[in-house]
Amino acid sequence: MLQYIIKRLLILPFLLFIFSIIAFILIQAPPGDFLTSYIAELATSGSSIERAQIDALRALYGLDQPLYIQYFKWIGRLLTGDLGFSLDWQKPISELIGERLALTLALGVGTFIFTWLVAIPIGILSATRQYSFFDYFFTVFNYIGVATPTFMTALVLMWIAFKYYGLSVTGLFSPEYIDAVWSWDRTVDLLKHLWLPVVILGLDGTARLARVMRANLLDELKKPYMEMARAKGMSEWSLVMKYPVRLALNPLVSTIGWYLPLIFSGSVIVATVMNLPTIGPMLLRALISQDMFLAGTIILIYMILAIIGTLISDILLAWLDPRIRMEDN
Amino acid sequence: MSEVKPLLSVEKLKTCFELDEGTVKAVDGVSFKLYPSKILGIVGESGCGKSITIKSILRILEKPGRITSGKIMFHSTKSPGKAESELVDLAQLEPHCKQIRSIRGNEIALIPQEPMAAFSPVHTIGNQITEAVLLHSSIGSSEAQQIVIKCLREVGIPNPERCMEMYSWELSGGLRQRALISMALVCEPSLLIADEPTTAIDVTTQAQILNLLRILQKDHNTAIIFITHDLGVISQLADDVVVMYLGRVMEVGPVDDIFHNPQHPYTKALLKSIPTINTVNRSWLPTIEGSIPHAFHRPKGCPFHQRCQDVIPGLCDQKTPALHPVTDHQSVSCFKIHDFVDQP
Ligand SMILES: Nc1ncnc2c1ncn2[C@@H]1O[C@H](COP(=O)(O)OP(=O)(O)OP(=O)(O)O)[C@@H](O)[C@H]1O
Ligand SMILES: [Mg+2]
Q1: What pTM does this model have?
Q2: What residues of chain A, 192 to 251, have a C-beta less than 8 Å from chain B?
């Protein structure tokens, strides 16, 4: 097991290297260098920038030098913790994304927990009571859940909350806490606002996960070990929970990996609609205004999240399934 | 013999699967008796209802299978809270009730037809066998593990302590089969049901497993129901034989009588199809003509009449013969031998 984890950890630097190159290519993708377009933009809006400042920036990013030197300059600064400067916001990137990243993570983890807590029991009950009213009800429910775009759900729920309960459910904080420093009260306020976006973002994933869980479990319920466990005299419920549920979960665990970044990117539209201070809308704005270092940093963070997610699911899978754990020995 | 009470007595058992396409009568009036510490062989072609019969006994039929009539009288000796033994009609119990669960594994154990997948691949062998012990007794888990290790050693598994920590897919076919046998026997059941336990393993290992079963059966006085296609195995192992065809019993009796003095045309045909070393022409083996009718198109009358060489037209295709004794121990269901009609 330890050996397995170490193996996975050893390829991490290599993956990070590849992904950082991809992020860098994305930064370079727009025609011309970002500084030129920035100056052009400033010129159209009437303000101007000093010659000296431009030259300083040029030297900092190595814009006159070959691409690979630009890359190493960028990565070198990243490694020392300097994420760079957003020309669009006129703020250091680390300052810009710090809290947004934390909130995005809170939202992502919350959505993930919600999805699994709701979907797995529904999947189990639907499979064990196949073709019952419960099963049909959730089959229909799941189809609706998958088919409805998330932003639609968001709009409808926001409208209901506003119309019938007088609640304004946009944002993640009440107005008085938006710019406040972190405190216990602010955390409580966050939790009060978090649940609705969690439900909205989680609905689609819940529907999908419940369907997959149901299908996996139905497969497992036909396996001969079920008959054997019954013949031992186990009660139906405890044997279902011990054997087939455990085996049906295994393939799902491997989806955690791509689930993490999916929540972040998938939340862009909902976050825009609900005015959530998360990282998705910021990426969108950065891309539109060609604030490429901000965009590149966010994309790199996505990629790192994907790597972490994959690592977590690999470890979980090995922990759950001895066949995978021992493959490497 | 006559004063010994049967351990298990199945009477006119009928089990159906009600499907949208129609009703499959998988077991259609099966009767047999099994006495304590005897071995009963059940033979018959694929699909004749052998597995469904024993699943009905254990009450582990999958949906939509259902026992529609008949009795399954079992002599229960370990029923909780009762000192004396008790005669239970298993067919009357609810499939998931406490009483049947305390009998399953504890008094009637199963070695299933598919040994390869009978263990969960993500739980250790030790975990799964210990579970069987813990289900039926109130001892602690370390004590239960000692019992399991002892039982694994008894079925001939080398280094049982290590085997406890292993997964089923790490064992060879033969060892896996032994582990399954030890899981079945660990609670010292009075009846062991083995559903084709040796079909999936090679001939040498097969012989070893059969030997093992015979030894265990002597040591523990366990009664066995042994299901197989292989008449050779039956002749070596069984005391009594049930010959099944399309969900019905064609002939039942002691193994010597069935092999040396078969009465039913189907039994005769089955015996003729066993290859022997002395078979004159090696390239030709007698087979039974025709094929088994599909379960939906069960013929009227005797189920075998379409393929029977001794068919009596106007009788065999109209009425179903009863399973009637022809000697003290042997019973046959054939109008050629007697003219008792089956009363449903
Ligand atoms: N789940 C089911 N649904 C419908 N019919 C079934 C089902 N299981 C078994 N049957 C029918 O019951 C009949 C008997 O099946 P069974 O499994 O008892 O055969 P068998 O004698 O054990 O054969 P084999 O030697 O191949 O194991 C078959 O004709 C089959 O079509
Ligand atoms: Mg079978």
Answers
A1: 0.86
A2: 223-225, 227-236, 242-243, 246-247, 250
